[in-house]
Automatic annotation (TrEMBL):
<dbReference type="InterPro" id="IPR002347">
    <property type="entry name" value="SDR_fam"/>
</dbReference>
<comment type="similarity">
    <text>Belongs to the short-chain dehydrogenases/reductases (SDR) family.</text>
</comment>
<dbReference type="Pfam" id="PF00106">
    <property type="entry name" value="adh_short"/>
</dbReference>
<keyword id="KW-0560">Oxidoreductase</keyword>
<dbReference type="InterPro" id="IPR045313">
    <property type="entry name" value="CBR1-like"/>
</dbReference>
<keyword id="KW-0521">NADP</keyword>
<protein>
    <submittedName>
        <fullName>SDR family oxidoreductase</fullName>
    </submittedName>
</protein>
<dbReference type="InterPro" id="IPR036291">
    <property type="entry name" value="NAD(P)-bd_dom_sf"/>
</dbReference>
């Protein structure tokens, strides 16, 4: 049975991704910083008859918490097949370039970039033990530099001086990570779940969490012929899936 760790898995897209991977036969470790919320998520999934899962307490903002989570998972398994870096924050509004504070930037980067780095570095040794290790870093087409430079893009006027830069930096980390692991049978991709209506964005959006979960699960389970080092947005490009950086 393959094993996956999903950060920020107690609600919304992370929770739905966990549900879909459980349905596909994965054993799921739900990473969440709140014990109460984590246990509620576990109870909800178990009430649906999904039993191959457990809660792992982890705050991606805290290196000590991430290291403790790595120790805890290591007590349960010597192999991790998939890591989904889903935990993220939007940083609140407004996010204007001239009024954004350094504190705002540091807070969001600490989760959206540094959190991904912390978790990936902590768990990569377990991933190396898998025959087909996969890493999905949950991104957003809204951080595409190419799209935001294109006045014809439908979201051109929706600029963000905090969230988008944090995810753009995460995308560059994804490129570097995929390159570094290219000879180790890894598949590493940045995947946009789509413009989904959740509490993350004030329930604005055109997609569903089910669609988002399916997109993330797809790249968490890709075969040897699948891409690596790519920026994927099937909402933006349904044909090839690739999104311009």
């Amino acid at each position: 049975m393959k094993k996956v760790l999903i950060t920020g898995a107690n609600k919304s897209i992370g929770f739905e991704t966990a549900r879909q991977l459980l349905q596909q036969g994965y054993y799921v470790y739900l990473g969440c910083r709140s014990i109460e919320r984590g246990n509620l998520a576990i109870e909800k999934l178990k009430s649906e008859g999904l039993t191959n899962l457990e809660f792992i307490k982890m705050d991606v903002n805290d290196s000590v918490s991430v290291d403790e989570a790595r120790i805890e998972v290591g007590k349960k398994t010597g192999v991790l097949d998939t890591l989904i870096n889903n935990a993220g924050i939007n940083g609140g509004m407004p996010q204007e370039a001239l009024s954004t504070t350094i504190d705002q930037l540091q807070n969001v980067f600490n989760t959206n970039l540094y959190g991904v780095v912390r978790v990936t570095q902590a768990f990569v040794d377990l991933l190396r033990q898998s025959e087909q290790p996969r890493i999905v870093n949950v991104s957003s087409s809204g951080c595409s530099l190419a799209l935001h430079s294109d006045p014809t893009w439908k979201y051109y006027d929706h600029k963000s001086a905090v969230y988008a830069p944090s995810k753009a930096a995460m995308n560059m980390y994804t490129i570097a990570l995929a390159y570094e692991l290219k000879n180790a049978n890894f598949k590493v991709n940045a995947v946009c779940p789509g413009f989904v209506a959740t509490d993350f964005n004030g329930h604005r959006g055109t997609g569903t969490v089910q669609e988002a979960g399916t997109r993330i699960a797809k790249y968490a389970t890709i075969g040897e012929d699948g891409p690596s080092g790519k920026f994927i947005s099937e909402e933006y490009n349904p044909e090839t899936g690739e999104c311009p950086w």
